[in-house]
Amino acid sequence: MTEALEALPPPGDAGDGGAPPDPDLMIDDLIEWLCQEIGTAIGTPATAVPSGKPLTALGLDSLAAVDLQQAVLARHGAALTLEELLEGPTVAQLAETIVAARQPSPKNARAAEARAGSVGRFPLSRGQRALWFLARLAPGSPAYHIAAAARILSPVDSSALERAVGMLADRHPALRTTFGDERGEPFQQVQPQASPTFLQEDAAGWSERELEARLQALAYQPFDLAGGSLLRVCLWTGAAGGPLLLLAIHHLVADFHSLEILFHDLGELYEMVLGGESTPELPAPPPTYTSYIAWQEQRLAGREGERLWEYWRQALAGVPTVLDLPLDRPRPYPPSYRGAVERLRLGPEITLRGARLLARQGGTLFVLLLGALEAALARHTGQEDLLLGSPA
What we know:
alpha+beta, 7 strands
């Protein structure tokens, strides 16, 4: 699972930003709302979405599931896992799960109190530990940088934007986090304050090639995990086509969904600063990532952790850990990450056949394409057992 800037709260925890639990919430009303959301996601009228059919059989893929997950949290204050959406529940079953997840409990109150003091030293999640190890293995590598650039179609007040960036870091503890280790054991330190990197440059007279080169240089410039900000915001003014804004962040504290949150919050804060608000405020953010880590560790330390460990120990027993692909030359270690992108457009005939297969099997497009990749790798390697990792 990729790491989120502000992770979803543990199941059963509505979080600071969720709606208060409503014991009188009617299942029928919730089913009607879910049918509307799912219909929009799959391009079908809500009246054509049967409440007794599994979501995957309706054509809900993993990307649409993420959108639905966020909509449920924002509208009904219930945090669902992607597994709960993609393991084949019907709309009616999902409605019951949402109602159950909204019920208040003393544990939720304690979690909210813990989130209020989310400054200090914390352990890393399991996903963060893997990324931290890779960062130590290849220091300075930009392989786990996440960056997005956008053209701005109106003049920009750079001082207001810089102030909004500082408020963004105050709002999200992940943007005030640094990473260190003690006797080889990693930890993350959430600082009470931070100064995100904000850079403004005048690009008047620059060519598109010069601007692109500068943008890539700053997007891939190494982050100081131990002592620097893991967020970099760059603004170019005077460029042909209008101002250009870049947000770059390390994957240790964000994922691609986090960028959507960042851009939204930054835009809201910027407009509030321009409007003259001295201390602009947004609705309370979701629970902090450190509260998710505490939940994850508690879960893995109990019976569920034992069950998961036993499952994977058996599932991976004897599976080869090396993919025996025929190579044209020896590959370096550690990896250089100097790869490329190969684009392939599927024609309408094969796309339609794939859609029919998915409808019969109740799978997602992602699973179909992953299966095709595994089949191709099996042909090249002669291996029947393959280990593939993918972001989720």
